[in-house]
Amino acid sequence: MAIYHLILLPSYPVENAVNYYKNWLARHIGPFSARYSVPHVSLAIFKMHVYKELSLLRTLESAAAEEGPFSLYTNGFGFLDSTRKVYIQVEEKEQFARLSDNLHEKSTISLLPKANKSIVHVPHLTIGRNLAHKFEPACRLFQHSIVSQTFTASAVTLLKKKQGKSEILQVFPFLSKHSPQLTLF
């Protein structure tokens, strides 16, 4: 079994902003989980047998090709107490949830048991997670901060975890292709 992560990568300016806030947080609270992770918006995380990988790649390529590029807007900071997470909120939740559902339903991911997958429906860019006792100071630090940027999602990236590190397996562009219609006669 391997662990896979389906993500959207933000534009360079948004990536820089996320890294700036990660460094700012580290200066105030010290080291934390996710400090050095590459800024991204998660769509799905799942476990799957490697022998199914070729099927996954084919179905994701087809599903992604049907999608069109769209804009995502960052809008302020959010806090999730259950995971002690600080993140940048990303708007366009409905369009993101539709993309997440489409990629799930039209790919091999849909065939996996629920216990082996987590489909994300609320887009965000993580600054820090599992902050434990550092969570409250982190929330206070960001509660009045403002961040507002736009980036275009034009592809989805599939990562595969190997020896504790994630590597890019493939990038699937959004091509706005329509799936072929079946005719009855």
What is this entry, summarized?
With about 180 residues, the protein is of the alpha+beta class. The chain has 4 helices and 9 strands, in the order E-H-E-H-E-E-H-E-E-H-E-E-E.
Structural description of this entry:
- The protein has helices at residues 12-29, 53-65, 93-105, 135-142; strands at residues 2-8, 41-48, 70-80, 85-90, 117-119, 124-128, 148-153, 155-162, 165-173.
- It is 28% helix and 34% strand.
- It is globular.
- The protein has a five-stranded antiparallel sheet, with helices on one face. Strands 6-4-3-7 form a four-stranded antiparallel sheet.
- By secondary structure, it is an alpha+beta fold.
- It has a domain at 2-72 and 92-125 and 152-173: Cyclic phosphodiesterase (Cyclic Phosphodiesterase, Chain: A).
Radius of gyration: 18 Å
Share of β-strand residues: 25-35%
**Tell me, what's the shape?**
globular
Q: What is the first-to-last residue Cα distance?
A: 43 Å
CATH fold category name of the domain at 2-72 and 92-125 and 152-173: Cyclic Phosphodiesterase, Chain: A
- Can you say what the CATH homologous superfamily of the domain at 2-72 and 92-125 and 152-173 is? Cyclic phosphodiesterase
CATH architecture of the domain at 2-72 and 92-125 and 152-173: Alpha-Beta Complex
Structural class: alpha+beta
Number of helices: 4
Total count of strands = 9
What helical percentage do the residues reach? 25-40%
